[in-house]
Amino acid sequence: MTDAKPFELPIRVYYEDTDAQGVVYYANYYRFMERARTEWLRSLGYENQQLLDEQGVVFAVRRAAVDYISPARLDDLLEVVVSLSRIKRASLVFEQQILRGDELLCKGEIMLVCVGLEDFKPTAIPDSIMQEINNDR
Length: 137
Hints:
Layout: E1 7-12, H1 26-43, H2 48-55, E2 57-68, E3 77-87, E4 91-100, E5 103-116, H3 127-135
Antiparallel strand pairs: 1-3, 2-5, 3-4, 4-5
């Protein structure tokens, strides 16, 4: 477990996110979590294209497990929370929550692995990123 501060991203539920009953389609929770992790990385000073171009690496989802507790609906304002729970040399594990106000709607654990663009095999997370992660704690 790390001491990293949680990152929060507000997301509004749009019609495109829902099914015919106005309920968020289950796969879209993964999209919301992905957006929040991307913005977390951006808050550390890194963008995905920059990692590709300058570092030759990308973060790929290795494992994702989500528990659905209560549905989000059309026009809801959600808060997607990103908490870094484990750091290894080539991987990061995030605990994520999606809330509507104080109500927990969904929670998940997502593991990302840093892979090289040449072979898509795990590689060490660049030192500069590790330093920013440690500074964020």
